[in-house]
TrEMBL record:
Cofactor binding, note field: Binds 2 [4Fe-4S] clusters per subunit. One cluster is coordinated with 3 cysteines and an exchangeable S-adenosyl-L-methionine.
Alphabetically ordered keywords of this record: 4Fe-4S, Cytoplasm, Iron, Iron-sulfur, Metal-binding, S-adenosyl-L-methionine, Transferase
Gene that specifies this protein: lipA
Chain residues that bind [4Fe-4S] cluster 2: C86, C90, C93
Protein name from the UniProt record: Lipoyl synthase
Chief subcellular location: cytoplasm
Disordered: annotated span: 1-30
Amino acid sequence: MIGKLVRDLKIPDQRHPEKAHRPDNVQPKKPSWIRVKAPTSEGYKETRDIIRGQKLATVCEEAGCPNVGECWSQGHATMMIMGEICTRGCSFCNVATGRPQALDAFEPGRVAHAVSQLGLKHVVVTSVDRDDLEDGGAEHFAQTIRAIRHRAPATTIEVLVPDFLKCGPSALETVVAARPDVFNHNLETVPGLYPEVRPGARYFHSLRILQRAKELDPSIFTKSGIMVGLGEDRQGVLQVMDDMRSADVDFLTIGQYLQPTPKHHRVDRFVTPEEFAGYEKAAYGKGFLMVSATPLTRSSYHAGDDFARLRDARQKRLGA
């Protein structure tokens, strides 16, 4: 009886008092710092026309990124290869889940053409999860990297890859051997939330992917990111930072989770800009070369500028 009374007792959340009296099915009000303007610029329209003209998908649109207006107005778009249908069903992600179509052998060339048309100095290439493919799409990533190198040799390339969970080690080796400038794989959240947020993935497998990429090519920059506002606490975020550093990750991104639709994982709370600044300070203290931690931070947000800063940070550290 005592145990039941303790379980039923509603104890206010002392760490986050704004949550104390909010029913679980009610979303917190979106604060002013998370609001963005609708995309209307001519630059946005030009980028959209190039992407559609090459019949490409972008994570900017498929995942409903809040920064699409700003990025596309500057001609920056994150290419999403291997189709628009994902074989996973993560509760935070707005990309459709289902049975994907066969790979398009001409897609790498079209991506390279779009990169050239957009005049990108730095491009981010990501993909859906393709658990239906023996190599998870690793060779398709490699072909896309090689096509961009051929068509736009001055462009630096960042890949944001899936976890290749159902593939052998050769899948990761194939991508790294193609020599991207940045190898990114997102941990997405703290390990305790994986069963409800990222049920098809394994936290320590993802961590090992990052570690192994660096082992295969020590010159490569490694990068990973998480979302906050899913239900994690500060200690959990700090532990993820430690785990990433143990895997020799160079660059950390932290951004606010935004619920794409009512069917997706709910927003637990909106993390304040001051808390993000605290995370950034803590991350630099743990030894990351680069940290981007703001409410609107996303994996590819300002990726080109961040890559330049990342190279400078490495040179300074090596010269120290």
